[in-house]
Design a protein that fits this description.
This protein is mainly β and 380 residues long. It is built from one helix and 33 strands. It has a domain of 247 residues. It is globular and about 50 Å long. The strands form five sheets. Strands 1-6-9-12-15-18-21-24-27-30 form a ten-stranded parallel β-sheet, with no helix packed on it. Strands 3-5-8-11-14-17-20-23-26-29 form a ten-stranded parallel β-sheet, with no helix packed on it. The structure holds calcium ion (CA).
Length: 380
């Protein structure tokens, strides 16, 4: 099997969209001018990273300044890129823009390993900037991977005739992950037409050992979701439903957005530590939702302008502060949830936690920790 063990995409990329009248997310087909790539036979993906046995080995060592060009695609591609039977793939320094469906699709049913998505930008991706699919084999996962230092932003509103009335929108929606890390990303305005989009980071279906930390999530319909209340077509009949097990959500800033900050559904052994959440008036209570099927879970040192509500799940609570926290944050409207001098209820009010020894900026928490993601400096 000719699996590419090293595939680095490091190019200055121009993702030009192909305009379609009246469609805010036109179909996009990225075609490579330089480098060698697999062209999928059925053209589902304009290009994909693959090393199946009947394919030659493809490496792409693109020189800087390589340009990805867009061309009209018929039939229209589902996504701009896909990752399947791969090991050790890094997708870095790429831009994905103006795509109707998926920016990158990671196919967990093909058991990819060590997939790193690093310093990429996703702008106006219509359905999922990063989609992770799953099959029904409960033992097959995408093992070891990360999404780091990426930016996700939508500036357009999906039309009403898309799925779920234009609400089928998320930045990251991934299934069947094991040992994945989502850190230091920025999410802005990932929203459905009717405020009913999925979370900016939505992980589910047999995922385990996942860490979500140091992300800034601003004005997205929902912030971070481990699981959801409903079913997936990847679930097995009779399977005990555990969408995420052994996960950590820590040191995130989540500001604004119409629905909720963090939500857990059918999540097991989750630690929610040192997050700062600012809810607007709409759905003010939905700072953190502990939903049905959630168990063996801890909520520690979170700071929530809003509330923590239980909707059928269980969690141990320790040193969280909720309520109206006006004046405690530098600039909630712009997502800056650093503490002000007025945040007396948060400063030095936490309990040291060995799983959160640094804050959202990477600064060590020395002495008595502050609540939330931000550790105030001594000069305060
Ligand atoms: Ca402190």
């Amino acid at each position: 099997m000719n699996t590419p063990h090293w595939l680095l995409i490091a190019a200055s990329v121009l993702a030009v969209h192909v305009g379609v009248a009246e469609d805010p997310f036109p179909q996009t087909h990225l075609a490579l001018r330089e480098g060698r790539w697999i062209k999928e036979r059925n053209q589902t993906f304009p290009f994909r990273f693959e090393g199946a046995a009947d394919d030659p080995v493809f490496y792409a060592a693109l020189r800087a300044q390589t340009t990805l060009r867009a061309a009209a695609a018929k039939p229209a591609p589902q996504s701009t890129s896909g990752i399947g039977h791969c090991e050790g793939v890094t997708v870095a320094h790429l831009s994905f823009a103006d795509c109707r469906s998926y920016g990158i699709k990671v196919e967990a049913e093909k058991a990819p390993k060590e997939i790193q998505i690093y310093d990429c930008r996703f702008r106006d991706i219509g359905v999922r900037a990063i989609k992770g699919s799953a099959g029904q084999d409960p033992n097959t996962r995408a093992v070891k991977g990360s999404v780091r230092y990426c930016q996700f932003e939508n500036t357009k509103v999906p039309p009403a005739d898309w799925l779920f009335g234009g609400d089928y929108i998320a930045a990251i929606d991934m299934m069947a992950l094991e040992d994945w890390h989502f850190s230091d990303n920025l999410f802005r305005n990932i929203r459905g037409r009717n405020s009913g989009g999925r979370a900016a980071i939505f992980l589910w279906v047999r995922s385990r050992r996942v860490v979500v930390e140091r992300n800034l999530i601003l004005n997205c319909d929902r912030g971070v979701a481990f699981g959801n209340p409903g079913q997936s077509t990847a679930n097995l009949a009779g399977e005990r439903l555990v969408y995420v097990a052994d996960g950590i959500i820590r040191n995130n800033f989540i500001a604004g957005g119409p629905d909720c900050g963090i939500e857990l559904w059918y999540a097991d052994r989750i630690k929610v530590l040192h997050n700062t959440i600012w809810r607007p008036e709409q759905n003010w209570r939905r700072g953190i939702r502990v939903g049905t099927g959630t168990a063996h879970t801890e909520l520690v040192n979170n700071l929530v302008h809003g509330e923590i509500i239980f909707e059928g799940g269980e969690a141990q609570m320790c040193h969280n502060l909720t309520g109206h926290l006006e004046g405690c944050f530098v600039s909630p409207a712009s997502g800056n949830l650093a503490l002000t001098r007025e945040a007396n209820g948060a400063i030095d009010q936490g309990v040291p936690d060995p799983e959160a020894t640094e804050d959202i900026s990477g600064r060590p928490r020395v002495g008595r920790p502050d609540l939330g993601a931000w550790e105030s400096r001594n000069e305060l």
